Amino acid sequence: MDKAVAPAKALSMMTGLPDILVEPVIRDALREDLGLAGDVTGMACIPPKARFKAEFRARGNGVTAGIDCARLAMALMDHQVRFEIVAPDATHVKAGDVIARVEGNARAILAAERVALNMLCHLSGVATLTHKFVASISDLPARIACTRKTTPLLRGLEKHAVKCGGGHNHRYGLDDAILIKDNHIAVCGGVAQAMERAKAAAGHLMKIELEVNSIAQLKQALPFSPDVLLLDNFTLDMFKEAVKLAKGKTILEASGGVNLDTVRAIAEAGVDIISIGALTHSAPVFDIGLDAV
To answer: Which of 39, 211, 253, 272 is flagged as catalytic?
Structure first.
């Protein structure tokens, strides 16, 4: 056997997440697609022992992510399928480039095809969009980060894809850090009350971030020394004023409606982090096909 082509049952090279976290997602996706009767088209048209050889090819320019999800989809259908990764996650590819090669039982490969492509195209789309944002401010110190605006049950994979595109991860869930938002402030009765309660409850390793939507709120927050100030939907002039008031005293994170047309000006204002929900909730899929060879 070619050393570059291993049985797809070797699943230890997953996306950076433990296999035990990823495999249930792929199993559920396959179960959804197979339904109660399995791939009736494949069973009707393809002999049980027929072989198939194909290549995953990019149909545009972008960044790969989720290749091991495609491999796992194939492996769960038939552990003897052979899968060669040509362009690992975080590889920059152009139209026509081979991303992976697969060879094995035809019924198994074609039954897994759509799940494999759905995951690979979606995650590569996240990585590709992230790279566009990162590249647009690559000469500036600000970092691009994602948010919790992710597809339910795919958060770990989508955040991995952001990293493949050169971005950084915000918190993974509600238990990572204390993030006081506008509704928390409203319930508590003000910035001061919310910050006092948060600081009293936080352990020595727990960071506290406070969302502010005005310069006045920012000034109220500074005496409490939050670890991060989230500047929500600020104008460019407000970002500049916030930097003058708080740069060096706390980490400044810009968020809210950031796009490729505005991100550079925000970064030039001097903020430390720019968080963008669109990286995960609105990334176009990266077009990849599975072509017979």
So the answer is: 211
